[in-house]
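your task:
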Amino acid sequence: MASKPSIPKGTRDFSPSEVAKRQYIMQIIRSNFEKFGFQPIETPSFENSDTLMGKYGEEGDRLIFKILNSGDYLAKADVTLLENKDSLKLTSTISEKALRYDLTVPFARYVVQHQNEIEFPFKRYQIQPVWRADRPQKGRFREFFQCDADVVGSTSLWQEVELVQLYDSVFSELGLKGVTIKINNRKILSGIAEVIGASDKLIDFTVALDKLDKIGEDGVKKEMMEKGISEAALVKVQPLFSFTGSISDKISQLKELLSSSVEGMKGVEELQFICDNVNELGLQDSILDLDVTLARGLNYYTGAIFEVAPPKEVSMGSIGGGGRYDDLTGIFGLKNMSGVGISFGLDRIYLVVEELNLFPETVKVTTKALFINYGTEEAKYAMKAIHSLRKEGIKVEMYPDAAKVSKQFGHADKRNIPFAVIAGSEEIKEEKYALKNLISGEQALYSLEELKKKLI
């Protein structure tokens, strides 16, 4: 007996109703992207390995899915590396391509490659899948969609202000109230590392700090010490873990902590500009919060960084994130091209909206009405109406076989189709159609024009 087929861990199949709900979220995100002036692009699902490797830090590189070269991929492999099982060095000789880890680095590559065709500042959005060789768990998948919006070619902090508003606009339209948009600045983290005497350990410092939600304060301190950050430095950094009060209060504390750091104070000024203007313009349903422990482990961020937490009644990781990168395109040869962007985590947003029961009933409906099939002549009569209804954008279909009527009604019930249309010999004589509401059981005869009005 053949074994039952399966799919890789961290991937999923989606049913018709799940696809409808996902498309509902994507459409809201897409319409808001366009409302804010972003234009769509798409990039390949896989890139050359050297495009991706080294752009996400050591931990990120380990999570990139590598694609084996076509044909006899071991033919050109170094025998010594094979014998020594040196997988890190061997990989580059047998794999020249990789699945994209995110949409930001491929976007940077796109900008550099098409720089002569682009009008700057360039506002782009992308809604495409990405892949990470992560350990699957609730809300964390190996294949998932990202919905990104980025602006390149401008250093204006008004872009950050608008991106906060964009987050708020999307979550408000989805009915998500109480979403927290956390903000920090990498210059502040650089300033803290400088003040505590750990500038040479900035990457280790931020990577460890970024795990605060997962491993707690003690875990973060332990990891920092393992990376060579001294106990004396940890004593100086202690205020980070107990910052409280309003955004204004936290900024005042940061000014005091970072008074000796030019870089740190620059970060504070940027944060104050963004927060003050967001506060003045106001948000609909979201909350802006300054989180001084927010680090985001990706190496390319240089200014403001964002992370979005779902409403407190939902147990879920971040549902969005992003930040400012002053020279991401520089790694591909195009210098002084500052950018800033945010991402929506479609899959996690789906889980949150589902848990809070916020999907509209209309999203669950696919076909509006099922025409019952009574035989060849009746089917021809039904198909003429179906053709006319579809021209009006009404979703209708006919059961393909002249099966038992009870079976056809059962099919409509299982698919949650709300109406059935009966077009038998009597209806044909009267040139009418019987419309039956499968929820209430009510039934009435209508002309084709009347049927259209009932089903719109």
Q: What stands out?
A: The radius of gyration is 28 Å. The chain is about 45% helix and 15% strand. Residues 368 and 396 are 6 Å apart (CA to CA). The chain has a mean pLDDT of 91.
